[in-house]
Amino acid sequence: MSVTPEFAPAYAPFIGFAGCAAAMALSAIGSGYATAKSGIGIAGIGTFKPELVMKSILPVVLGGILVVYGLVVSVLIAGSISPKNPYTLFKGFMHLGAGCSVGFASMAAGYAIGIVGDAGVRGIMVQPKLFVGMVLILIFAEVLGLYGLIVALLLNTRA
User: Fold this and answer.
1) Cβ atoms of 142 and 109 closer than 8 Å
2) Which one of 10, 13, 23, 136 has the minimum C-beta count within 10 Å?
3) Helix and strand numbers, DSSP H then E, in the chain
4) Angle between helical axes of 12-46 and 130-158 (0-180°, round to 10)
5) How far is CA 103 from the centre of its chain?
6) Where in this chain does the record put each V-ATPase proteolipid subunit C-like domain (predicted)?
């Protein structure tokens, strides 16, 4: 099947690579915010109760997973763009939507993980029974990024 030039203009790959960049940059922003905000809380409690530092590292780990979601989608998008095959505007906008989906979802999840992680680890210092509640809230916050990844994968398979 041949693609006519009006459906595959020269600038179409730029739109696809913009989706690739959005996936990576926005998810890295969310991951960085979660790591920094949670790290502030861990550093705050580490001076008073150093034995809680390793137990409190969970928000940082969950924040780090968010950037992996963006990396997966970026690699999939970049791998499907080739100068040998025609790249249509439809594919470009589908890839842009996929990148924005995982990027913004991971950024929102990183914001939630950062705030819950900071307040949660400080709360654990005072009341250790809060750990289970903090873990549940962190899991629900992480799932926001996972939802964005699932939508991005569905959009990428349709392109």
Assistant:
1) yes
2) 10
3) 4, 0
4) 170
5) 5
6) 19-77, 96-155
Position 46, amino acid: G
Q: What is the pLDDT along the chain (159 residues), one digit of tens a residue?
A: 566 666 778 899 999 999 999 999 999 999 999 999 999 999 999 999 999 999 899 999 999 999 999 999 999 999 999 888 889 999 999 999 999 999 999 999 999 999 999 999 999 999 999 999 999 999 999 999 999 999 999 999 987
pTM: 0.91
Give the per-residue SS3 of 38-72: HHHHHHHHHCCCHHHCCHHHHHHHHHHHHHHHHHH
CA distance 16 to 78: 8
The whole-angstrom separation of Cα 14 and Cα 8 is 12
Measured from the Cβ of residue 86, the count of other Cβ atoms closer than 10 Å reads 15
Distance, first Cα to last Cα, the chain: 16
